[in-house]
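Because showing beats explaining, we think one record worth quoting, sequence and backbone structure tokens together, and here it is:
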Amino acid sequence: MSDLRVDVELHRAEFSLRADFAVAPGEVLAVLGPNGAGKSTLLSVLAGQLLPDRGAVELGGTTWLDTERRINVPTHRRGVGLLAQQALLFPNLTARDNVAFGPRSAGATQSRAREIAARWLAETDVADLGGRRPARLSGGQAQRVALARALAAEPRLLMLDEPLAALDVDAAPAMRGLLHQVLRRQEMPTVLVTHDVLDAVVLADRLLVLQDGQVVEQGPTSEVLSRPREAFTARLAGLNLLTGTSIDGGVQVGEEIISGRVVEEMTAREPGGAVFAPAAVAVHRERPSGSPRNALPVRIAALEPRGDVVRVRATGPSGTGLSADVTPAAVAELGISAGEEVWFVIKAAEVAIHPVSGGSSGA
């Protein structure tokens, strides 16, 4: 079992990167940040494609990089697997031969490489497409084959660079669910770069936020998104997240039960998350009686004007930060202010229920 340890610093004329973090075996670390924050630069350093000015990268006791000792293991000897936005499959090879390419390059016989390829095509739900060439695959199918190819090479570190960004709205949720199922069975550390906070919610155990080349926040995913310390992270989250334990048709968070649309089937008592937008939340003085909707008791922390709406920030179950977007007229009619206790009410149809990798702390 190998953990990844990174402490690097890189300076260019108009950009600097400083990152210090670790990823445990089997853990998924999501790296989020705006364009130009340094996410791609960080992946290039991990892959050995870019030499930092100072620092070290170590995986499972093996030093990949140590600028003081002038150690810099080349990319092909690091054992890094990459799944990028585009599948980048070899167009002249079948899906099966694309997946078998890694094992063959590592010295496996053709028959053994094909056995490995068959296993990973089955793991990624495209076993019946092994004989097709990339031109005959949809975007979602090609990305599944690309994931199988990355894993078949038995990488020591898996890097996912915006793996869902190029998929359409129908293919992305299915691929996200597949990644969740596959990644939680892996023992290697995984670094996921994404712009989509939902990817972090569903896939990542921990979250690292980069801004202007600096790590501004890092920690368990639910904790960082529910209690952001930086304005950027709060904007990045943009969604309400309640984590807890899955039940039939919803998630139990402390004493509260949140019902919604189950996006990916989960087993009972598995860590799950309820995700909903601030615009989906209605604010009430009293709990609606006889309503089938979700109702959460909260304490208002702040009222923030945002154009034609007011963002009502509040503290919900287990101290979780929650937000509602309501009209100024609604705020005036309710007569609410910071410190008061109210109810956040959300229709079940507006809540997406996902498995989560970050545990069920409800934070």
